[in-house]
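[Protein data]
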Amino acid sequence: MIIHRWLFAVLSLSAAFAQSSKLPGDYSGTLGPLHIKLHLKTGATGNLEGTLDSLDQGAAGLPCANLHSNGNNFTFEVPSVNGKWEGTVSDDGATLNGTWSQGSPMPLVFRRDEPFAAAEKPSPVDGIWLGTLNPPGASLRIQLHLKSDRAGKEYCSLDSLDQGARGLVCENVHLDGSQFSFEVPAVHGHWSGTLSTDGNVLDGTWSQTKDLPLRLTRQKTEVASNPLEPPHFDPAMPPVLLAGLKAVLDRDLAAALAGGALAANTNSGVAIGVEQHGTRRILVYGAVKENSIFEIGSISKTFTGLILAQMVEQHKVTLNNPVRELLPPGTAPKPNGPEITLLDLADQHSGLPRLPDNFHPADAQNPYADYSAAKLYEYVAQHGTAKPAGARFNYSNLGLGLLGQALSNRAATTYPDLLHTEITGPLQLHDTVVKLSPEQQQRFALGHTAQHQPAHAWDLDALAGAGAIRSTAADMLTYLAAQLHPESVTTTSATLPAAIRLSHELRGDVTPSMKIALVWFCDTNTGVYWHNGGTGGFSSYALFNPKEDYAAVVLYNTAGGLTGSFADHLGMHIAARLSGKPAVSLGP
């Protein structure tokens, strides 16, 4: 037996080494709208090493740590952004299929880059170019990288240096004599112009929301990006009681208020709601008020999950109902074999992509506004409702939007009205709405981009169930208090307490230490249920801990940026303070 065990160990080690030997190389993937590069190599000691680039966020060379390869399984961490990737490697080492965890877990598939064969003679536009774009009230440096291959195909990527966006991929790159043009699909932009006779100037027009002149001059070297610093942690302290939380947060947020995420010149503000042992408190910092209304983004999904639980308890649907049965007749034929159920949509195991392939916003600043029910049904008709074999967790705005639309169909009403009937009405959440009244519009906080520029509010149509809700810290605390103690809920809905309990039942795996209920994520190490959200001008984080009897919500009128979401960091910071653990620093 000893010999057999030793032999098994050797074989396992050999298999792991064989797998890791396939891994070195450069890989590309997309995380939602973000283009990600992974660089793996064998270091001087023979160990696998790696770095990661988030091109659209200007983050390059982020060191990877704890790289582990065992058979087809592969994991690595990126400590500087508190992120982790885990998944499997294809037999040929060409594809890494897995999940990125940093806030909401999301699918992230890497594919090995094909080696680039540069042209023996560069084209007239090959090189590095720099110019300045001047939209109203701003000055943005634009850097362009151009190269051609041996087949004469031109490749292009664009950096918006002052917005932290690097490596935006160009398409439809054309050079015809001195006429040159390209598109940047990620921002719905287009440039066209002329190459000067000396080959050192590209003079033309950038078209996005409006036409602006953009003159680019040839450079010898590129403007480099600044590396991200790893996160810092404040030391642990004894668990904080609610009465002392303000004093702790006043101190912990001092740097953010002085020159960071909440500084006066950012016009940003945060509303924090905390409930502990039946007592609640709302704290406000920066440029918002206690009764300000915020977009809560994907936290809306938890309301959609609870609507599903309500309708199950009312015997209007079952978790195993195929979604096809709740769509207009004839939308999609019954597939051969398993099909997507309402539960599959709610626990993110439907196999549906993050967004449908017919999602083409007319306005990038309000991207969901024109995605109608007709377009959604058109997508379902084309895609079908078959559930892929072995479907794994895959975070999908499409899936939760489809669930909200399907439940509204079954109830013969609209999503906003269904939300009121099943949740906000019974819980008396008067400021938790999809459409704002004139009075609520006066209290609606102005949203901001990650660069602290005013952002357009987001309006969602057919995908409302994925992210359309607006709310206040007070309403969200009432909602979270109901999650903590459904038995104590005062409500006009007899089924709501049971529905809340049903919505907490763990359904599927996300990562080894993370499971998902009906939309809510649950950290199995701490017992904390959580979800976050983000739109073009807002970010949010909500959590509740039944074991320690506390809940918290963070509503921030600014989108996530280069180092992640300030709302996420603050939400996790508050949970750490309430539990007596080291807390991520909230400074600049």
